[in-house]
Amino acid sequence: MSAAKLVAAIDHGTTSTRCILFSRDGTPAAIAQREQTMYYPRAGWVELDMEQVWQRTQECIHEALGTAGAGAADVAAIGIANERESVVLWNRRTGRPVARSITWQDTRTAGAADALAADGGIDRFRELTGLPISTYSSALKLRWLLDQHPTRRAAAERGDLLFGTPDTWLLWNLTGGPDGGVHATDPTNASRTLLMDLHTLDWDDGLLDAMAIPRAMLPEIRSSSEVFGPAAGELSGVPVAGILGDQPASLFGHTCFDHGDVKNTYGTGAFLLSTLGTEPVISEHGLITTVAWKLGDADAVYALEGSVAMAGALVQWLRDNLGLIDDAPEVEQLARSVDDSGGVVFVPAFSGLFAPYWRDDARGVIVGLTRFANKGHIARAALEATAYQTADLVEAMLADTGLARLGELRADGGMTKNELLMQFQADILGSPVAAPAVAEITATGAAYAAGLATGVWSGLDELRANYATARRWEPGMDDDTRTAGLAGWRRGVDRTLGLAAPEPVAAPA
Ligand code: ADP
User: Fold this and answer.
1) What is the C-alpha to C-alpha distance for residues 313 and 14, in angstroms, rounded to an integer?
2) Position in ligand 1 atom list of the atom nearest CA 313
3) Rounded distance from Cα 268 to ligand 1 centre (Å)
4) Residue ranges in the chain modelled with pLDDT below 70
5) Can you give the pLDDT at residue 22?
6) What are phi and psi of 453, to 5 degrees?
7) Residue 1: its pLDDT value, please?
């Protein structure tokens, strides 16, 4: 076992980057956080300056070490958790990105995704990759960046331009950048590019051809938990030993190690992941199949994933677009001003319905209004929408896995502070919901991956023993009320379908 007492996690999220130093018992000893600048150069475009992100990462490392009164010798390993799918393209010699990163939310590749799906449908790569064709995956963003400048493709073919998701960019910089930086990724990140074969965990030549991506620019796919290389800089010599995409990192941090374990992260959107095992299950109910983690030489473990686009975002909408509340926590008070939603159902299909419905033509509805309904009912229905959307994902997950019921839902994210929502979630699922004592569960997962590879923790049992639940909500709703609530939600979902205005038909010449 290593003598050093701390494990550092770099958690690079969409809006900020953090460095958290964890003690062996899995609790944070120091946290430093820096916001990063988001760029929206056009409608639907969302970019980050990854040099700034790397700069802020170094500042966070410095500050966290200072807070803990620690130096490199006190840190046994470094783990990375990151927003997935975002694309960084940089020059191997100078270490400088050739453009800003195109982040996961960016929809500029909608036309390219439609064109790719025109031949064989959006599921043409699903068996191979676990993913539908969409604007999320990295591949089309990368091709877009390559096509922007006539010299880029040739430079990529020579291996002079490197591609990476944010984990790869951070790993390369942490391990020395142009001076010997390690160019690698892990399967959880690679599985979101639409370029990796989910079964072999290698880049697939057919996919590279279809997306016109040169292999020479791709990082090596290694595991999620192994020594990638020693860090340079302030943590000089400390092994970088863990990489997990943010959602798999959260699943790992929640110690959802067994088949059927489920976590949901309630933030702006919500992300539900369910651990499968060493065989990928291709969803028949609209979920995505993804790599959950791969620990060293052991077989990869897979997960099913579903997401809710409008979770906390709907609370923001009540605040910013309707002015019903001044800040997000206030929604609970407003929702508690009424006993129930009074029959009001709010389906926030603002940009269509995602898993498990996948309907582009859906738009949001507030239905069931009567003369009696007031803003309290609307606030309550808005909160319930997050719980119902989560219940839809759980139902799809159970159908795909053949499991009869959910044991417990492990929850994290900003909305878990909302007691009303969490209780309603337990009620509508008919299963307990639990929130961990350590809120920084994504960073925890990254630290665990790194600490396992370096002997800080002996194995999964020790991590399970570290997991402490801070809050637990037991289901208390009777079956009839739950069934009626779910039926009302489904009727609301039906009303959303076909509401999007049809594409205008060109007038005859
Ligand atoms: P992200 O990581 O996506 O930025 P967070 O986990 O920080 O999100 O959660 C922020 C989201 O949670 C916001 O959309 C906000 O509206 C919502 N939120 C925060 N507090 C509450 C609350 N008490 N009740 C309901 N929603 C909340």
Assistant:
1) 14
2) 14
3) 6
4) 1-4, 502-509
5) 97
6) -75, -15
7) 43
CB 194 within 8 A of CB 129: yes
Q: H or E element: which one contains 22?
A: strand 16-22
Helices (H), 348-497: 375-401, 419-429, 441-453, 460-466, 479-496
Best mutation site among 15, 266, 268, 308 for ligand 1 pocket (most ligand atoms within 8 Å of CB): 268
Burial of 318 (0-12, 13-18, 19+ CB in 10 A): buried
Percentage of the residues of the chain whose pLDDT score is greater than 90: 84
Cα(50)–Cα(43) distance, rounded to whole angstroms? 21
Local structure of 414: helix, strand or coil: helix
Nearest CA owner, ligand 1 atom 16: 312
Are the beta carbons of 289 and 282 closer than 8 angstroms? yes
* pTM for the model: 0.93
The tokens for 188 are 């959880």
Distance 267 CA to ligand 1 centre (A): 5
Pairing verdict, β 365-367 and 409-412: unpaired
Q: Which atom of ligand 1 is nearest to the CA of 316?
A: 16
Q: Which atom of ligand 1 sits closest to the CA of residue 265?
A: 6
Contact, 312 vs 340, CB < 8 A? no
| pLDDT value of position 287 | 93
**Ligand 1 mean position, distance from CA 293 (Å):** 26
- What's phi and psi for 120, nearest 5 deg? 105, -5
> Measuring from each residue's beta carbon to the nearest atom of ligand 1, which residues come in under 6 Å?
15, 267-268, 312-313, 315-316, 328-329, 331-332, 413-415, 417-418
Tens of pLDDT, residues 474-504: 999 999 999 999 999 999 999 999 998 766 5
Decide if 463 contacts 255 (C-beta within 8 A): yes
Query: Which tens digit of pLDDT belongs to each residue from 288-300?
Result: 999 999 999 999 9
**Under 8 Å between Cβ of 337 and 480:** no
Q: Which of 318, 299, 301, 309 is nearest to 272 (CA)?
A: 309
DSSP 218: S
Task: Give the pLDDT score at 194.
Answer: 96
The structure tokens listed for 336 are 């508690």
CA nearest 325: which of 369, 376, 373? 376
C-alpha closest to that of 218 among 291, 157, 164: 164
Closest atom of ligand 1 to CA, residue 319: 16
Domains of the chain: residue spans and CATH: 6-247 (3.30.420.40)
pLDDT of residue 383: 98
